[in-house]
Amino acid sequence: MEGNHNRIQSLDAIRGFALLGILVVNVFSFHSPHFMYGGIEMFYHTTLDGTLLAVVDVIFQASFYPLFSLLFGIGIYIMYERLTEKVNDRAKTILVRRMVVLGLIGLVHGLFIWYGDILLSYSIVGLITLWLVHKPIKSLMKWAAWMLGSVTLFMTLINYVSRDFLSEYRDGEAIQQSFALYTGSYQDILQRNLADWLVMFNPFQVILVILTILPMFLVGVVFVKAGWVYNPTEYRHVIKKLVIISFIIFIFFKFGPYAIGNPAWLDFLKQGIGGSFSSVFYFLLLLLIFSENRLIFLQRMLAAVGKLSLTNYLMQSVIAFIFFYGVGLNFYGELSVIQLMTYVFVVYTIQVILSAWYLKKFRYGPFEWIYRTLTYGKIGRLKRRA
């Protein structure tokens, strides 16, 4: 029982760490439209801004959604194993319902709060993962490598051909409209948010997202099937080797492009390969550290956030909505990178404190409870017994 508890707390802690990385990256999308429409130099001007943006790009950008995807794949397969033991042939039916509920939550989040929602994409990829969970490890790794390799090669070639356009890309009209509407009324914000959501969820973009996220779901399934998640100390020698290998690949693909001026056409290669291997590095390194009962205080702190991952993810969007948009404090496009990182520190610290306090009184987060209730079709007990 104790080993099982430690394993679950380790996964929760890594999930909490992933939420910090997601907050770091997402704050830039809430603050300005440069991720979608270019013109980053319009918002961040100083040498310090440039340095911090490079640090975020190497350490955080495109690393934490893959990490969350890997954790999601682990969660799906663990649930699949447990449900198969309990209800046998109904396991996939319950998990399909779970993915549909997640998709509905993501749809509401994406349409009414923030166009950059990832939950709808995760629900789609989760459904595909359920179709593949029974396959052996070698087959899963071949699927993951083929998908990630082919889409990265294809997009890098496309970007290379379009390199002149990419290096000068700036959609001035979209940037102007973003400023006009995101700093306006709630109706203005919804109008612009819907337009950006439709850009994010056009068919081509959805296919790209599936081909880049699904491989990490499958890697998560492989880590469970290989026994590394259940018994990391037993496999620590092979895990340590993979930590070193993934770190080398991560640094080469994430940091390497800066040696040649960080051209825009290398972005997909940097994020697809570098981001995926950095997520594997983060996961395996933290799995080893936490499984050996090191950094216990940090583990417990992160685990509290991770146990409420759905609630904390959605609340990060709600807080940013109020902080950056016109219906709230209206800081859209107004802050430097160091100010944005201060915002991240404050918000995440509050989430750590509130998560630890909340879990003393309740078994699930409010959105986790809704998610669970709709999945199983019965109302579970929310409050802890005295």
TrEMBL record:
The keyword Transmembrane helix applies. Pfam families: DUF418. Residues 224-378 form the DUF418 domain. Keywords: Membrane, Transmembrane, Transmembrane helix. The keyword Protein transport does not apply. The chain crosses the membrane at residues 12-31, 51-74, 95-112, 118-134, 143-161, 206-230, 242-260, 272-290, 310-332, 338-359. This is DUF418 domain-containing protein. It comes from Alkalibacillus silvisoli.
